[in-house]
Amino acid sequence: MRQSHAGGEKLFVDYAGDTVPVVVDRRTGEVRDAHLFVAVLGGSSLSFACATWTEQFADWAEAHNAAFAFFGGVPQLLVPDNAKVAVIKACHFDPMLNRSYTDMARHYGTAVLPARPREAQDKAKVEACVRIVERWVLGRLRNRIFYSLAELNAAIGECLADLNERRVLRQFGQTRRQLFEEVDAPNLKPLPAEPWVHAQWKRCRVGLDYHIALEQHHYSVPHRYARREVEVRYTARSVEIFLGGERIAVHMRGSGNGRHTTVPEHMPSSHRRYLDWTPAKIQEEAGRIGPMLSLLMERIIADRPHPEARLPLVPGDHRLVQALWP
Fold it and tell me: Which of 73, 137, 166, 236 could form a disulfide with 159 if both were Cys (CB 3.0 to 4.6 A apart)?
């Protein structure tokens, strides 16, 4: 049966079946496929698309954030299909939703109404939009070579401008953008102050060099926390380190695969000279100082009066090492 959609009521979301190749290494010509996320409003058919590296939840959430920013508001309902990224257990009457997806919907003040399993007509709007986007976007870009995801998304945005703002819908005599301003825009909920951020947690132990390792990247904490067990909260853009519920460090998330990293990114150059020093090495170098050791320790304690300064040797303390071996 023909479906009718009220303004600002439903946003249909899905991934297109086709992918776009992106050259990630110009020297070797290595290519990685980018996936196309598609979202369309039921009332006006205003369409949005963006490329993501995967269809996993982190990229799924970032694509939703971009879609809400594009529309300038939030609909009453989100209508995905039954992919595992959105629905854990499909059911005609009571589907079990992904908990993080529910949290994101709660943050935006909307609800999730997934399509019924094996009932494609429940999301016919986005199925038609996927075909249109594949013709108007992927078809136009099929002969172009892209070297980054940002470059691909910029090209997709140009194609979407033609689709939404210049192509007139014959049955309405208006463009999608004009119909959106008339039907959907007045009924969308306002965006929250901050976009929703998907975060993951992990327990790590700080090394002797006062850095933690996270996905082949290194992040520093104050040196007094060396060898302590900490909790790490990391998102696509930031890394926060907590000890006993208190945040002790925050960093921008490292990019790349990190396989060629030999020195922690956040370690000052003055510290790298002693990166491979062990407590035994420190003891050996300290023994060469002899009678001057006690005098040097007194100066260090006076310069840094905290409880750990009473220890004769603090593993990983670069200032002690510099004093012993300039």
Answer: 137
> Domain ranges in the chain?
10-187, 199-267, 270-326
Longest dimension (CA), the chain: 94
Reading the block at residue 25, the tokens are 């290494």
Would you mind telling me the total number of residues written for the chain in this entry?
A: 326
Separation of alpha carbons 215 and 192, rounded Å: 31
Task: Tell me the DSSP string of 208-231.
Answer: TTSEEEETTEEEE--GGGTT-EEE
Q: Which residues contact 270 (CB under 8 A, 6 or more apart)?
A: 318, 322
> What is the DSSP code (8-state) at residue 183?
I
Calculate helix-pair angle for 57-71, 99-108, nearest 10 degrees: 20
Q: Which tokens belong to 190?
A: 């306002």
Q: What is the dihedral of CA 233, 234, 240, 241, to 10 degrees?
A: 50
The torsion defined by the Cα of 6, 40, 15 and 17, in degrees rounded to 10, comes to 110
Helix (H, G, I), strand (E, B) or coil at 73: coil
Distance CA 237, CA 35 (A): 20
CA 210 to chain centroid: 25
171-196 residue pLDDT tens: 888 899 999 999 999 999 999 998 88
Q: What share of the chain is helix, strand, coil (3-state, %, to 5)?
A: 35, 25, 40
For 94-110, the pLDDT digits (tens) are 888 888 888 899 999 99
- Measured distance CA(307)–CA(326) in Å, rounded: 24
Structure tokens at 319: 């200032």
Kindly state the tokens that stand for 221. Answer: 């904490």
Q: What is the pLDDT of residues 104-146, one digit of tens each?
A: 999 999 999 888 887 777 778 888 889 888 888 888 888 899 9
CA distance 134 to 36: 9
Taking domain 10-187, whether its CATH number is 3.30.2350.10 is answered by no
Q: What is the mean pLDDT of the chain?
A: 81
